[in-house]
Specification:
By secondary structure, the protein is mostly helical. Helices cover 57% and strands 5% of the residues.
């Protein structure tokens, strides 16, 4: 790899190669952790900080307590293999001269996979869709003066709609807060299921790295 060349996103992935793309990105744990951390960060991340966090997640400890030799091993593999791999597929921008990486997920379907954590216990999109339908019916009945809704004024109807969505928002906030407290000290991961088994070429470097991780 040319150390003077920056790695930048190459654009979205074609639909035909979607499954292979997802498999290649998420089935490697170290790459998955790095992508998750970069995706959740608000800006550029130094390679040292990224390596420390990924190494800590792999050892189920904190960045301050993880062994330095493991951090160096993770740092080397990120720089040599994983960050260029992700950059070539349009998911990160990687500057090898400054040792800085930035999450760059723009593909909508990839973002769905990144956010595919069991964050809540309730399907809140169903709740909001139901509230939208109920609100539309309520406003329609008030507008058409259908009895007994003809006694409800527009202001009262609007207040009811706002109140329903406010209660749903509070419930959603509380549900996410409970999930975050439960998962605060656990490493991130993805629950991605593909419709069929997908084969992809990881390369000799990645297979050797997997053997090293198992040891």
């Amino acid at each position: 790899m040319d150390p003077e060349r920056n790695r930048t996103p190459t654009g979205p992935v074609s639909v035909r190669s979607r499954d292979q793309f997802v498999a290649g990105v998420v089935l490697d744990q170290r790459r998955r952790y790095a992508l998750y951390y970069l995706h959740e960060s608000s800006g550029p991340v130094g390679l040292d900080d990224l390596a420390e966090q990924v190494a800590a997640w792999e050892r189920e400890t904190t960045p301050d307590e993880v062994a330095r030799n493991h951090v160096e091993s993770v740092r080397s593999s990120l720089r040599r293999s994983h960050l260029p791999y992700l950059a070539d597929r349009g998911l990160v921008t990687y500057d090898d001269r400054r040792h800085v990486a930035t999450g760059h997920v723009e593909d909508p379907e990839v973002a769905v996979f990144l956010a595919n954590d069991p964050r809540t216990e309730v399907s809140w999109y169903r709740v909001y869709l139901t509230l939208t339908a109920v609100s539309a019916v309520l406003v329609g009945l008030v507008w058409l003066d259908v009895s007994p809704f003809d006694r409800v004024g527009p202001v009262v109807a609007a207040a009811l709609v706002v109140g329903l969505f406010a209660l749903a928002s509070i419930g959603y906030w509380y549900d996410v807060r409970r999930w975050r407290r439960r998962s605060e000290d656990t490493p991130p991961d993805f629950l991605v299921s593909l419709e069929r088994d997908v084969g992809f070429d990881r390369g000799d470097d990645e297979e050797a790295e997997e053997d090293e991780n198992r040891r």
